[in-house]
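Exercise: predict the structure of this protein bound to S-adenosylmethionine.
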Amino acid sequence: MQPPTSDPADDVGSFYDRNAGAFERVYGSVIQAYRTRDVTRLLDRQIASIGLRAGMRVLDAGCGVCGPAIHFARRVDLRVEALTISGVQAARAREAVAAAGLAERIRVHHADYQRLDTLFAPASFDAVYFLESFGHSRDQPALLRQVAQVLKPGGVLFVKDIFLRLSDDPARAEAMAREVRRINEAYRYRIPSLEATIAALRGLGFHLTRLGPVDIPLEDFENLTISNEFQELTGIARIHDWGSYVFPVEFFDLQCRKPWFGDEQDAHMSYVQRLVKAGRADELA
Ligand SMILES: C[S@@+](CC[C@H](N)C(=O)[O-])C[C@H]1O[C@@H](n2cnc3c(N)ncnc32)[C@H](O)[C@@H]1O
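Solution:
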């Protein structure tokens, strides 16, 4: 029996500590349910979707065992600060990073992404990305404020995650809400609302640059069988009655940028006008 914990982050950490072996057996080193059959194709796409470029310093918020960070750093000359709340994953990630010869470029932290202000200086990252990890946050608006603080002006925030599906049919909405409760409880998740996430980001001045379905070639789509396999193996959130099951979430890629300008500068102009005036229109490409 695990001792009860009062901090939800500890609960997430012990969930991954307990299940690290099962995750690795089923998912390998990339713990993402929405994926391509050959997972390197997903990761190659994510390099483009996030906008990773040589010379960037990036934050992998919820890095798992660093499968993605290692792939990205092999393909692109990056420096990565990688955070996981699981001590077991952090140890596995460090081993994998060392085995890949990337210890100089990827630093693994066993730390809470809710406390970025205690870990990193303000305006110190070119990009922050969450790959199926944002929804573990116990306070998503506060997390986005932390991200805004550590990003450089013009820096990219990328979130790939599940978001609540909506329905104006009350019976359907209730069936989905039931499944959401099951997933949240089983995976220590708080499946985010897309609308609330965007509202929080825009409130912080973030400039939405891309939003849509996860960008992968659908002929390579793995079809979500891996998450069923994991559920069958572990019993976690296993679906017992497919007849009454309603798929309760949608996967999205969301990319946005921290604003270059404070609200007071050229307040009479739109953000895009200000970008053009500042010679930063290429950011819109
Ligand atoms: C589904 S896994 C995704 C792992 C990784 N992004 C990947 O693609 O393989 C979710 C990750 O988020 C991490 N995580 C959850 N809450 C966290 C927190 N408060 N601080 C840091 N990491 C956290 C977990 O430890 C886990 O590594």
